[in-house]
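Re: [ENG-882] Designed sequences occasionally contain unexpected residues at chain ends

Forwarding the minimal case from QA. Structure tokens:
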């Protein structure tokens, strides 16, 4: 069984549609597809710290407060193995939104929340729950 973390980050723009941070995956599964930033925690790492580290490694984004959202445990959510993801969510502003893709992300981009690409894993479900929590 695998445990991973995912980060749902909304950019709140004054007088316009909020945007969502997604990465284009560099590696299988779902290579070339879009997903939330995330990955595997280190053995000596709290889950929230793993989510912050993965967010920074894959997108360059820092200074985002993360709140635990939910544990997603769908049996077939990951084709590699049984995987439980603990998702976190947070918001940022345009002045803290410069992205630099890295690690296993080919690209990192902001997408209007009402115009998202097809998503890997069960990330559409995670995003919908985060939108409800954030009241977006």
């Amino acid at each position: 069984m695998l445990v991973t973390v995912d980060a749902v980050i909304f950019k709140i723009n004054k007088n316009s549609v909020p945007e969502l941070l997604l990465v284009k995956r560099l590696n299988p599964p779902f290579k070339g597809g879009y997903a939330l930033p995330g990955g595997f925690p280190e053995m000596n790492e709290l889950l929230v710290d793993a989510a912050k580290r993965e967010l920074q490694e894959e997108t360059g984004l820092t200074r985002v407060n993360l709140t635990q959202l939910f544990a997603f445990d769908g049996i077939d959510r990951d084709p590699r193995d049984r995987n439980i993801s603990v998702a976190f969510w947070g918001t940022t502003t345009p002045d803290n939104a410069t992205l630099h893709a890295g690690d296993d992300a080919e690209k990192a981009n902001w997408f209007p929340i009402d115009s998202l690409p097809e998503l890997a894993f069960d990330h559409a479900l995670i995003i919908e729950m985060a939108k409800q929590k954030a009241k977006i």
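QA comment: On inspection the terminal residues look reasonable. The CA atoms of residues 21 and 120 lie 14 Å apart. Proposing we downgrade this to a documentation issue.
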